[in-house]
Amino acid sequence: MNACMTLEQTCKMMVKKLGKIIPDVELRYKAELVVEINELKKEKNAVILGHNYMEPALFYTVPDFVGDSLELSRKAAETDKDIIVFCGVRFMAETAKILNPDKTVLLPSAKGGCSLAASITVDDVRMLKAKFPGVPIITYINTYADVKAEVDVCCTSGNAKAVVESFAEETVIFLPDEYLARNVAVETGKKIIFPSAVSTDSSSQKNQIIGWGGRCEVHEKFTTGDIADAREQFPDVVVLAHPECPPEVVEQSDYSGSTTAIVNYVKQSNAQRYLVLTECSMGDNIAAENPDREMVRICSIRCPHMNEITLEETRDSLKNIQYKIEVPEDIRLRAKKSVDRMLAIGSNVPSN
Which of 215, 231, 256 is the last residue of a domain? Predict the structure, then answer.
């Protein structure tokens, strides 16, 4: 939106865009926050990045760029602003800092955690390196900077297949999402195995993915029962699943892809009714962008960490320059290599 809009103009825009999703009285309160944030953004020479999982009142107002983690990483790498406010979670803001060491990076949350990022530690990675020497290690971008510093390359849900295939028929270690690893194994024709059941000798075999046991606390809750319920009530529904969902859910869906890929699918499809199996705010954002389509509300699950990012926290973070993201330089330099490789491989691929 235009950062120079008045409060009245902002209210009208938000009511028009979000009136079917958010009550007017709430929108009018949020419009005041939007005007204040946009004034602060201009005053402090800041850019705001908004992930697809942000609540609609934030997603459609203050960000200069919105998208998935890969697209926002690219925007972070290109910005000439002094301050980057990352409306996402900590690992995303860390990635922005990795790419912009001389800029101030703010996360509008004191914590901004992630169950996937918490499921793997740098000691875990070092253990895997010792157990499987020489096996390339790929980590999903949903990890913290010290983990990224220990691996060969990062990936997102959208370019995971391309990253895995860049190692030809080699065995690779894929961290930390169990379900994404299983789904990528299906896409690439590789066998999926796990460290507890793998000997060092068997890891030398070709065309395998050695996975990990991490799971997204949102996506692991979706079941094939959700799909069955939706199809029973709405026979024409198109089911879209994020690849962090269990493999049986992905298999029974009509389409599986990254958040950007799902957004684009709805834009390009002629179907009128969708069930989106991912973080529920994204369903609201898609609905606001496509008022002529129906988003089925059978299974809506909110990420508690993304839910920490609000307009109020965004204002306070920018106003007080609080919740700065710092990455030690030795870790940053090593992590940047794995992020740069991801960006190079995924230059033409939609993402997480």
Answer: 215
